[in-house]
Design brief:
Length: 260
């Protein structure tokens, strides 16, 4: 393991990398608006992606820095300008939403969380996070109000945690766990392990929006296939339509920032 520090060593740190994980930035604190968060983190992401384009243009990029709904489009625009953009190699890491959805579902269904599968689609903030509990396995039958509660908990899990820590940080351990899970999945794909499927926020034609989180099959080139949403319940269909305006706005905000 080799460590590097500061802007002057960034090139050395990135050279020859197969996977670059970007958790850099500040976490959201109580009282901080999304705009505050955006203005700080967007600049950091732009700087790092400019360096990635120069020193390791073929690396898989795992974007953890929030707001992911905007930072992924920023990264894409930076790479496009540099002539290095490959949509198969840029991922918004939404694994924490999946971890939360699986945990809450398992608790309610009274089954071990390790055996639960629950896709989460859309984006990575508030109402843009849409868990598809109708597709969760093992199958459990819940009333509509239970599904609504589980969905809300998944959407506000981060805020709930920040408030519980009284502004002294965010869900650090679960964020690290989720980031490691997704990075591990990318490495499995690069190493040729078949059928590695994870949810991620990627360039997509699943909806009319240019970026969308859904299940993707990972492989030697990064994204091998973006999988469709599958059958949705009425509640999920409604949630899908509700999230689109906010997600569209966040994507456009990222694109605008990158090009100013």
């Amino acid at each position: 393991v080799v460590g590097y520090q500061g802007d002057e060593e960034l090139g050395k740190a990135l050279e020859g990398a197969d996977v670059v994980i970007i958790p850099a930035g500040v976490p959201r604190k109580p009282g901080m608006t999304r705009d505050d968060l955006f203005n700080i983190n967007a600049g950091i992401v732009k700087t790092l992606c400019t360096a990635i384009a120069k020193y390791c243009p073929h690396a898989l990029v795992n974007m953890i820095t929030n707001p992911v709904n905007s930072t992924v489009p920023i990264a894409a625009e930076v790479f496009k300008k540099a002539g290095t953009y490959d949509e198969k190699r840029l991922f918004g890491v939404t694994t924490l939403d999946v971890v939360r959805a699986k945990t809450f579902y398992a608790g309610k269904a009274n089954v071990p969380v390790a055996g639960v599968n629950a896709p989460v689609v859309g984006g990575h903030a508030g109402i843009t996070i849409l868990p598809l509990f109708s597709q969760a396995t093992p199958k459990a039958i819940f009333d509509d109000d239970v599904i609504e509660t589980l969905t809300k908990r998944t959407q506000v899990g981060g805020t709930e945690f920040e408030e519980a820590k009284a502004g002294k940080g965010s869900a650090t351990l679960s964020m690290a766990y989720a980031g490691a899970l997704f990075a591990d999945a990318c490495l499995k794909g690069l190493n040729g392990v078949p059928d590695v499927v994870e949810c991620s926020f990627v360039q997509s034609s699943v909806s009319e929006l240019p970026y969308f989180a859904s299940k993707v099959r990972l492989g030697k080139n990064g994204v091998e296939e973006v999988l469709g949403l599958g059958p949705l319940s009425d509640f999920e269909q409604q949630g899908l339509e509700s999230l689109k305006p906010e997600l569209k706005s966040s994507i456009e905000k990222g694109i605008k920032f990158a090009n100013q």
